[in-house]
Design goal:
Blueprint (H helix, E strand, L loop, with lengths): L1 H10 L3 E4 L13 E5 L4 E7 L5 E5 L2 H6 L13 E3 H7 L4 E5 L3
Antiparallel strand pairs: 1-6, 2-3, 2-6, 3-4, 4-5
Length: 100
């Protein structure tokens, strides 16, 4: 699912996508990052600051695994430090809106 999403972004004007772990020189607010491995695929949106964080976009697998899926609740999107995100999951994809 994650590879398909990023392949679709590659085809759309205005998006720059880096895959195979090719990291951009720096991360910016709104960058989309994702891990794609056979056991766990996960994506999030970067928020920069003193410590960069990733606003997790839990899909059904991770949401169920970590008990975060509550469609009627307000906590489906959880922000974690980027360092923690990368300690648990390797970032394989980076996408940035650069405009048309």
């Amino acid at each position: 699912m994650i590879p398909s999403f990023f392949n679709e972004l590659k085809r759309r004007p205005g998006w720059r996508v880096r895959d195979a772990g090719k990291r951009p020189p720096s991360l910016m607010d709104g960058d989309i990052v994702a891990a794609s491995n056979p056991n766990h695929q996960h994506a999030g949106i970067v928020e920069t600051g003193i410590y960069d964080s990733v606003i997790n976009l839990p899909g059904p697998t991770s949401a169920r695994r970590y008990g975060m899926f509550r469609p009627s609740g307000l906590n489906d999107m959880v922000s974690v430090s980027r360092v923690l995100f990368e300690a648990v999951l390797r970032i394989d994809y980076f996408a940035r809106w650069v405009g048309t």
